[in-house]
Specification:
It holds the Pfam family TctC. By secondary structure, the protein is an alpha/beta fold. The protein has eleven helices and eleven strands. The structure holds glutamic acid. The site of glutamic acid (GLU) has 19 residues, from helix 2, helix 4, helix 6 and helix 7.
């Protein structure tokens, strides 16, 4: 080999070494955004804030929670769908943004199955229908009787149009032949504030955000959607028990990114979240709110989203549910 080709070879291999060193830079090298598509005070926000600190520790970079509320979670979810697939823009994947809203709302600006990369499901969460203490019914039978007697008197608050609370309540109305008007908020936080203040008599929410108000008597639980009675609310029946099994589905809170996220990044985040959830302190903070830790693989989470979306599409079609 002559001197010139030797030098060329060295330069090439140095370049290659340099490029691969650059390429192999460990993710993440800067703070990661975690978009919460609802207001502070709701379950999405609660779960994001529980996981962000241990996740920051696992990843060695800050995980910064950002609330982008509006349109039943669609605004924040659309922002993640449009983000660069580099692992620095992640979102909390909820049943509302991936399944119920896409199932009932024909104007969703993303495809829940094609525009995201599912990473991990953090927790499954019961839902609860609750009333203000001044509401003239304190249990399920009395609630049904009151709504039948006064079909135009009441309204119910939810985390937004097309959210799981909205869809489940419309399903409940359809199955139980009830009438009650919907009032959408930008998340459970503001919906709960108005329910506790008595501005709206009924609220349909996820358990973690509603539970503190139920515990101190500012809201009265009527019925829950959960596989079994919730340990914290032993006297409250499930929708299944009252004969309305289709309304008995739970919510979920996971992490996803835009489509095309590199596999190495997906695995890094999945592992970091699962390790965070092994910490007994983190686990118990999630479980104390009535949630169940899931911590599954990206593929299991993807399948779950496909399944939930399909179930809600069928529910919307069978019950002929619409947004208005
Ligand atoms: N109900 C919403 C959901 O399941 C969450 C509402 C909120 O976090 O404010 O996705």
């Amino acid at each position: 080999m002559n001197r010139l080709s030797f030098l060329k070879l060295c330069t090439l291999s140095l370049c290659a070494a340099g490029a691969s060193a650059l390429y192999a830079q460990p993710y993440p090298t800067k703070p990661v955004r975690l978009v919460v598509p609802f207001s502070p005070g709701g379950t999405t926000d609660i779960v994001a804030r529980v996981i962000s600190a241990p996740l920051s520790k696992e990843l060695g970079q800050s995980v910064v929670v950002e609330n982008k509320a509006g349109a039943g979670g669609v605004l924040g979810a659309a922002e993640i769908a449009r983000a660069n697939p580099d692992g620095y823009a992640l979102g909390v994947a909820t049943v509302s943004t991936t399944a119920t809203n896409p199932a009932i709302n024909p104007k969703i600006p993303y495809d829940p199955l094609k525009d995201f990369t599912p990473i991990v499901n953090i927790a499954a969460t019961p839902n609860v229908l609750a009333v203000h203490p001044s509401f003239p019914a304190k249990n399920y039978q009395a609630f049904i009787a009151e709504l039948k007697k006064n079909p135009t008197r009441y309204s119910y608050g939810t985390a937004g149009t097309g959210s799981i609370g909205h869809l489940q309540m419309e399903l409940f109305k359809s199955l139980a032949h009830l009438s009650i008007m919907h009032v959408p908020y930008k998340g459970s936080g503001p919906a709960l504030n108005d329910a506790v203040a008595g501005q709206v008599g009924v609220v349909f929410d996820n358990l973690p955000s509603a539970l503190p108000f139920i515990k101190d008597g500012r809201l009265i639980p009527i019925v829950v959607s959960a596989p079994e009675r919730v340990a914290q609310l032993p006297n409250v029946p499930t929708f299944k028990e009252v004969g309305l099994e289709p309304a008995n589905r739970m919510a979920f809170y996971g992490v996803y990114g835009p489509k095309g996220l590199p596999q190495a990044v997906v695995e890094r985040i999945n592992l970091a979240v699962r390790k965070s959830l092994q910490d007994p302190g983190v686990r118990s903070r999630i479980e104390a709110t009535g949630s169940m830790v899931v911590a599954n693989t990206p593929e299991q989470f993807r399948q779950q989203i496909v399944q939930e979306y399909d179930i809600y599409k069928r529910t919307v079609a069978v019950q002929k549910l619409t947004l208005d």
